[in-house]
Write a structure and sequence with these properties.
The chain is built from 4 helices and 8 strands, in the order ααβββββαββαβ. It is of the alpha+beta class. It has one domain: Methylpurine-DNA glycosylase (MPG) (3-methyladenine DNA Glycosylase, Chain A, Roll). Strands 1, 2, 3, 4, 5, 6, 7 and 8 form an 8-stranded antiparallel beta sheet that branches. The longest helix is centred in the first third of the chain and has 8 residues. It is globular and about 40 Å long. The structure holds a DNA duplex (12 and 12 nucleotides).
Length: 174
DNA sequence: ACGATGATGAAC
DNA sequence: TTCATCATCGTA
């Protein structure tokens, strides 16, 4: 049985946590049914100075979970139909998070939350068994997978500097 | 390429 | 209270 990643894992620099999440497993428990899939695509939203980050314009009702302790789930609704799953990083009151964009069986942050029934009911909760959503350890087989660094998706309004930062990390099959 | 679809936050 | 925007997706 794999190790469940705890607060300590997420209480580190956001870009480091993001890249480190590749190859780890997203685990979802609903009732007595457990699904476990490898994470293959993430993005880092590194703090209030990051103009693509929801916390760039201060604290608001929506982004309040980002100010909570590392390992807190931040789910928000966008484009009138999609839920986005993030996990909060770094120390309390430092608003940063990693967006989980894709797993081995499903690509796209909106599809992922739909498939694993992730919505605002999880917002602000801590990852763990009680919540029914957590992350388990795993290691990448480097003979099979390579890590790609690219700009983040769908953040054009953040301005050229932050749009071009390579804060999206993707696991690709060689 | 574009419309769906509605919460969010900033401006007025 | 209005309005543009939005960390997207399915269909064309």
């Amino acid at each position: 049985m794999s190790r469940m990643l705890n607060k300590k894992f997420f209480d580190r620099k956001t870009a480091v946590v993001a890249e480190d999440l590749l190859g780890k497993f997203l685990v979802r428990k609903i009732g007595n049914k457990i699904t476990k899939v490898m994470i293959t695509e993430v993005e880092a939203y590194v703090g209030p100075h990051d103009l693509a980050c929801h916390s760039a314009r201060g604290r608001t009702p929506r982004n309040t979970p980002m100010f909570c302790e590392a390992g807190t789930i931040y789910v928000y609704f966008t484009y009138g139909m999609h839920w986005m799953l993030n996990i909060v990083t770094e120390e309390r009151d430092y608003p940063a998070a990693v967006l989980i964009r894709g797993t081995e069986s499903i690509t796209g942050p909106g599809r992922l939350t739909k498939k694993y029934k992730i919505d605002n009911k999880l917002n602000g909760k801590m990852i763990g068994k009680k919540t029914g959503l957590w992350i388990e350890d795993g290691s990448i087989d480097r003979k099979v997978w390579r890590v790609m660094h690219t700009p983040r998706i769908g953040i054009d309004s953040a301005g050229p500097v932050w749009v071009n930062k390579k804060l999206r990390f993707v696991l690709e099959e060689k």
